Amino acid sequence: MPRGKSVSFVSLGCPKATVDSERILTRLVSEGYAISDSCGDADLVVVNTCGFIDAAIEESLDAIGEALSENGKVIVTGCLGARPGFVRKAHPQVLAVTGPQAEDEVMLAVRRYLPGPQQSPSTDPAPLQGVRLTPAHYAYLKISEGCNHGCTFCIIPALRGPLVSRPIHEVMREAEALAEAGVREIIVVSQDTPAYGLDIGYRTGFWGGRPLKTRLLELAKALGELGVWIRLHYLYPYPSVDVIVELMAEGRILPYLDVPLQHASPHILQAMKRPANAENALERIRRWRAVCPGITIRSTFITGFPGETEDDFEQLLHFLEEARLDRVGVFAYSPVEGASANDLPGAVPESLREDRRARLMACQEDISTQCLEARIGNEMTVLVDEVDEEDGALARSPGDAPEIDGLVIIPDGEELQPGDFVRVRIVDCDVHDLYAERICD
Questions:
Q1: Of 157, 122, 17, which is closest to residue 76 (Cα–Cα)?
Q2: How far apart are CA 63 and CA 93, in angstroms?
Q3: Tens digit of each residue's pLDDT (9 = 90 or more) over 112-151
Q4: What count of other Cβ atoms lies within 10 Å of the Cβ of residue 232?
Q5: In degrees rounded to 5, what are phi and psi of residue 54?
Q6: Using CA atoms, how far apart are residues 386 and 367, in angstroms rounded to an integer?
Q7: What share of the chain is helix, strand, coil (3-state, %, to 5)?
Q8: Rounded to an integer, what distance in angstroms lies between the CA atom of residue 441 and that of residue 424?
Q9: Which residues contact 320 (CB under 8 A, 6 or more apart)?
Q10: How many C-beta atoms surround the C-beta of residue 71 within 10 A?
Q11: Max CA-CA distance within the chain?
Q12: Nearest to 235 by CA among 191, 268, 203
């Protein structure tokens, strides 16, 4: 590349933000820009930020500051970019600030401050598999933008707008391209996955010469025909999820359910404006396990929500003991600017929020360990993520999503390659990971 045409990219936040970053990178490459691994060696830096909780905001501001220190020419995008005044107050030197899913605005800013070989937007779409930030063997597939819920602790609808579903033929075309490019696992992401198609009345589209309704059930069935692992993320506990669990039991998609329950106290769930209560959740979990006995269920919870009493927290502890979820993430409540929950009475001191988070994690640690111990002796197919000379192969089971769940460690797997499927027998576990021996290729 000619001197002065390289861009460095910093991508922060959730998998949905990762997809946004991949789309921008694909546009940059298609217009002739080189991508640099180093902020200091590049001619311009793009920082894709997260603005969901205070810790993420701080990380994003730090990343912008580091990029400015190393380079000086920085464009900011992403969720924190939806608050341009806040970003510019902290870092007035940035060249431009755009919000999330703003590919066109980012490209306009890049062309303005670093004119490239092509001065106008590309008339040809980038290859559907595009530039990916994930390893070659798995990829994220975003099926919609935004969210229609009004959860009082969340500002995502304000940052990313209401639900906007992608046309189903477009989603399936991208999924096919990923499978043809060698991807072995496709991870479906959105802010509210079961709501896919709701905003367009579940309009019928076409794929492979046949009609296909824009709805999660039909999408999951079609994705299950591609011959790769299909993992669904972020499913609200709607009754419609029951039929998705049936697909898992049939082996069409992975038996993995990521369902963000957030709390168990009816009082707190009402204050959060969540769409379910603890009693229904427990009954639904029992039904899911009856339909699909091997299912892995993961969830997230918030401690120290405004108004949370010790009794509310004890209800949450009791729920975990009853539900016996496989994987749990816990966050202390973060009073993010703009969240309506901040105006609720009964603010919980930060120290108590963190103390309850630690207590909840300690409770769940025992449960998760017992769930892992129950797998010892089982045989399963795992997907290799990487190979380490010291530890052997680091793989994942159908119950482990990349980056957030545990690993299946295969000490005798040194000759395996990332992307390999291998049959193993589980022989041991620790608090987070399983240990396995190969039984066949």
A1: 17
A2: 14
A3: 999 876 544 444 444 556 888 999 999 999 999 999 988 9
A4: 28
A5: -60, -40
A6: 28
A7: 35, 25, 40
A8: 9
A9: 264, 328, 360, 363, 364, 367
A10: 18
A11: 65
A12: 191
